[in-house]
Amino acid sequence: MTNRIAFQGEPGAYSHQACRDARPEMEALPCRTFEDVIEAVRSGRADLAMLPVENTTFGRVPDNHNLLPLSGLHIVDEAFVRVHINLLAVPGTPLGRVRRAMSHAVLLGQCRDFLARHDIHRVTGADTAGSAKHVAELGDPELAALAGDLAAEIYGLDILARHIEDEGNNTTRFLIMSRDPDYTRRGDHGTMTSFVFRVRNIPAALYKAMGGFATNGVNMTKLESYMVGGSFTATQFYADIEGHPDDPAVRRAMDELEYFTTDVKVLGVYPAAKPRHM
Question: How far is residue 158's CA from residue 144's CA, in Å, rounded to a whole number?
Answer without folding.
Answer: 10
